[in-house]
Automatic annotation (TrEMBL):
Keywords of the record: Cytoplasm, Lipid biosynthesis, Lipid metabolism, Metal-binding, NAD, NADP, Oxidoreductase, Phospholipid biosynthesis, Phospholipid metabolism
Annotated GO biological process: phospholipid biosynthetic process
Protein name, as recorded: Iron-containing alcohol dehydrogenase
GO molecular function: metal ion binding; oxidoreductase activity, acting on CH-OH group of donors
InterPro entries, per database record: G1PDH, Glycerol_DH
Membrane-spanning ranges: none
UniProt cross-references to Pfam families, sorted A to Z: Fe-ADH_2 (PF13685)
Length: 467
């Protein structure tokens, strides 16, 4: 089933004046036997783009075995492609149990892709991100088809990739795939934990838009209602169909796959990942930073985001209570770089110095974009913004309930690998210090409302709604 026709209608309705960046995804195919359609789709794309229809096709994969109805998916894809094209399989392996998106792996993928007519990136979000970066590095760029095998993240259908550099995950520009093919049967057979992680990823739409809007108020980001209107459509019926995710119900998994695909497009046309990436993603990145630095297995990104979404909502609730009880006033050193640098050193000084430098570089850039008078003006006019912010973030109890109904993780202790109280507290307390993105935690810090007592309160709120 071709989904892009529907998406183009949604985009026109959400952005009638054409103010948003264009979507360059040509085709989005979702269906039970979508795998079998890849050669025909690729043939059409090669002819439409004027590429060499008889040129080399590189099948980009990692070493992980993926099975569909008892058969090797990668072998089947290679057979299908080889029937029509000169096909070469490139297996990416960085020597770890799980492949990481690092410069060395991207360079190897780009070398394999260089001179090819097309690249088919088959796998999960990691292979998808590598494929986008590798093709973006080629001149001329090959046609890129992403063959999605799990509904674990939403990054298949956008124009950015998450790169692990100097121990810190960063979202960097890459490129739109020309097509994404989501084989519903393969995705339904993926480990249920990956699918539940995909639902965890979904919950960022219940918190991150509020951070995005807040950032626009203080001058740290732009904002457009169009992506939010698209997200409203993505959320239609979510409470009903999500209950089948945890049991692997094929219809529910297909709905999740469709929703994640549209979410990815939202990120692309918003021109920033901030539309769907706020505190909840920062918490996940903090956990990844810790695990990578200590050579530990990383958890599933979406599962961590789901837990982080409950935290993010609790932070917004804390802010609302403080705003109701006290007059918001910026601290004397709210935008002082020397004081901020000490905070960053205290948070990350026990880690590699490259991590400290990377985090400080991003956090300092965030501080320099802020103007004290503008932030104070926002605070002085806060009642005018409360209603809109309230529309963009859901209560922590509701998010926890939706995660539980979908069989997804809602607490740090239930993550795999499990996250203990000390690591969880470190990740939450310091999440604002690692990235150039303004969120509710940044505002709490500027107001002096993010000390030990406030962090305790957030964890108490989370415990109440997840126990």
């Amino acid at each position: 089933m071709e989904v892009m026709d529907e998406v183009r209608v949604l985009l026109r309705d959400a952005d009638p004046d054409g103010e948003l960046p264009p979507c360059h995804l040509r085709s989005l195919v979702l269906g039970r036997d979508a795998l079998e359609q890849v050669p025909e789709l690729l043939d059409v794309l090669l002819r439409e783009t004027g590429a060499d229809a008889d040129g080399r096709v590189v099948l980009l994969v990692d070493p992980t075995l993926i099975v569909r109805e008892g058969a090797d998916v990668k072998l089947r894809a290679e057979q299908l492609l080889a029937e029509r094209f000169d096909t070469v399989k490139a297996v990416l392996d960085d020597g770890h149990d799980e492949l990481h998106v690092v410069d060395e792996v991207v360079a190897a993928a780009a070398e394999a892709a260089r001179g090819a007519a097309a690249v088919v990136a088959l796998g999960g979000g990691t292979v998808s991100d590598i494929g986008k970066l590798a093709v973006a590095a080629c001149e001329p760029p090959p046609v890129l088809v992403t063959l999605q095998t799990a509904a674990s993240v939403d990054g298949y259908t956008d124009d950015v990739s998450v790169l692990l550099r100097d121990g810190v995950k960063r979202t960097v520009p890459s490129r739109w795939p020309d097509a994404v093919v989501a084989d519903a049967q393969t995705i339904a057979e993926a480990p249920v934990g990956m699918t539940c992680a995909g639902f965890g990823e979904m919950t960022s739409m219940l918190t991150a838009p509020a951070d995005w809007y807040l950032a626009s108020l203080v001058g740290a980001s732009g904002f457009h209602d169009g992506p939010i209107r698209l997200l409203d459509r993505v959320g239609d019926g979510l409470a009903q169909w999500s209950v089948g995710v945890g049991s692997g119900d094929p219809a529910a998994v297909e709905r999740l796959t469709h929703a994640l695909a549209v979410r990815g497009i939202v990120t692309g046309v918003a021109g920033t990942t901030a539309a769907l990436s706020g505190v909840e993603h920062l918490v996940s990145h903090m956990l990844d930073l810790h695990h990578a630095e200590h050579d530990l297995r990383m958890g599933l990104h979406g599962a961590q985001v789901g837990v982080g979404a409950v935290v993010a909502a609790a932070c917004w609730e804390l802010l609302a209570d403080r705003m109701a009880d006290e007059t918001p006033t910026l601290t004397a050193d709210a935008l002082d770089e020397d004081a901020a640098h000490q905070h960053v050193l205290a948070a990350f000084g026990h880690l590699d110095e490259r991590i400290v430098a990377e985090c400080w570089s991003d956090y300092a850039a965030k501080l320099r974009r802020l103007d004290r008078e503008r932030v104070e003006a926002v605070l002085g006019d806060w009642p005018r913004h409360v209603k809109r912010l309230g529309e963009l973030v859901r209560p922590s109890a509701e998010i926890a309930e939706r995660l539980a109904a979908a069989g997804a993780t809602a607490s740090f202790a239930a993550l795999d690998p499990a996250v203990g109280p000390g690591l969880a507290r470190w990740a939450v307390a310091n999440c604002a210090l690692m990235r150039n993105r303004f969120t509710v935690v940044d505002l709490l810090m500027l107001l002096g409302w993010w000390g030990e007592a406030e962090v305790d309160e957030v964890f108490e709120r989370v415990a109440r709604v997840t126990s």
